[in-house]
Amino acid sequence: QMAAEWIAALTSSPFLFLLLVIGALLLVGMVIDGIAALILVVPILMPIAQSQFAISPYQFGV
Prior knowledge:
single chain; 62 residues; mainly alpha
């Protein structure tokens, strides 16, 4: 939750939020498998994407 709050406080732009998510997934994907990284990261970031940035789940998934 602290990481999610930190990312949400870092930017107010949906575009920059998506760039930060891409960077985070790139870093996490270097350490663990891609599917495992998504399983760990998406439940943390999806509520932020929907509530604070009004990003559609389809757009966030693509």
